[in-house]
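This part of the workshop introduces the protein records we will be handling. As an example, a complete record with its sequence and its structure tokens follows.
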Amino acid sequence: MDLKGKPFYLSTKQEEWVYKTLSKMNDSEKIGQLFVVLGPVYRDAELKTLISEHHIGGVLYRPMPAAELKAIWKQLDACAKIPLLKAANLEEGGYGANSEGTYFGSQMQVAATGNLKQTERFAKVCAVEGRAAGCNWNFAPVSDIDFNFRNPITNVRTYGSDPEIVCRNVEVYVRTLQSCGMAAACKHFPGDGVDFRDQHLHPTYNSLSVKEWYATYGKVYQTAINAGLLSVMVGHIVQPAVEMEENPALTFADCLPASQSRELLTGVLREKFGFNGVIITDATIMGGYCMSMKRRDALPATLMAGCDMFCFTTDIYEDLAILKEALRTGKLTRSRLDEAVIRVLALKRKLEDLPDELPEIEAEKWKAECADRAITRVKDTQKLIPVSAEKYPKVKLVCIGEDAFPEGGSMAGLATKYLTENGFSVDHYDPMADDLHGADDLQQNRLTLMLVNLPTASNQTTVRINWCKKHALDAPRFVNEEKIAMISLNNPYHLQDAPRVKTVINAYSPTGDALKASLDKLMGKSRFCGISPVDAFCGLPDAQL
């Protein structure tokens, strides 16, 4: 294994440390290094024991104040014989580790600007604010392609549905993040976004042909690897065509999720793409991992397939015991174990030499600029824009989904303040307090403004607008009698549930900046710059009317 070459580029001294450290480790220490655990699951004392006695290789924490998290890392470091990998999900900005950090926006928002400078800024914010909280490993970028608008997980987490756009953004993000001393982990190999289901719940499928896969997802990963990518997170996603090409003896039923597939990990990632970095599973608590075989078989199979680390466990003590037994019985070979540990140690040694100086960032300024450049006018077939208080002095505000922004503040509150300051009278609509009425009851000088914030979430099988159970009274019914506009602050595909709304704006991120910029553009105060990274019409002809 070449540790002096891509992606580690270790010096002779650093390489010597890796092999010297390996030589002093017993089997328990080696096996412990293969696990990244979720810190909040354990009490402080238990976590310290897991690190000091079971030699756990890495920990991930959810967002908390930077000083608090750094203090935790300091305590855990004191327990660790070997430096820890300190992971975070920085998918939307420094906020993913540092609760005081910036909720920059979604990857799709960044892509909608059509400007890779925004991607570079985004990556810098993630790295600088993540490192300010003591983290050194980012489980991002999401490198999936949002081919299927019905997928409930990928959505705005991706750079869109155009493989070329995804490819360019992933490359810039990886190069920039790692130049700031933080390891990137492209996810979720072999690629989510084709299936309409959620791998958190069961194995899902990337059903592209061999040719299609290599031209899309394969290209994204090969590009990232060529850019020096340090790690890949592998999904519980089956890619039957590629697996069966790698091993013609396989049938469809034989194909395994990538996290357990030797064909995909060793055959494609290692041998075809030349990837020598760390391969880590997506969370092994997920249904997609647990359903393909018994756990006592799955864990050694994962390592033998080419994975180096496990993300999270159902029971850490059980999992450690399974691997010790697998090593004893030969289901896990010593050579494969050592190979995995060498890569883990190489990554740790690489990250020990972090650059002292980090780039200056203007997170809030950049965030606001990115939001402004991303806002997309999906359609305005009624030629409503620009809206003025002179023409529509009254606004009926319909809020659907989550009102609170991740960064703090209220969607309805911000919109009300903005509209009031601009001369509008605002009425907050409560469908449960309303009743059926005819079109003649509508006020012609009133604008119905729909604000929708429905985020993706694990274990959530759909991201759809579920209208009020009382006659769907919050649904846009009289589209020909009243003026209705919809602003989506998350999912860009709401035209599937409101196809006849004639004015639709996509903002891609649930932030105050995104909402304010959307309202500015609705009022004609600034121009629309965003280019939709996906088909917001969902392939529906009537949605374009």
Remarks:
- The longest helix spans residues 334-352.
- Residues 237 and 384 are 44 Å apart (CA to CA).
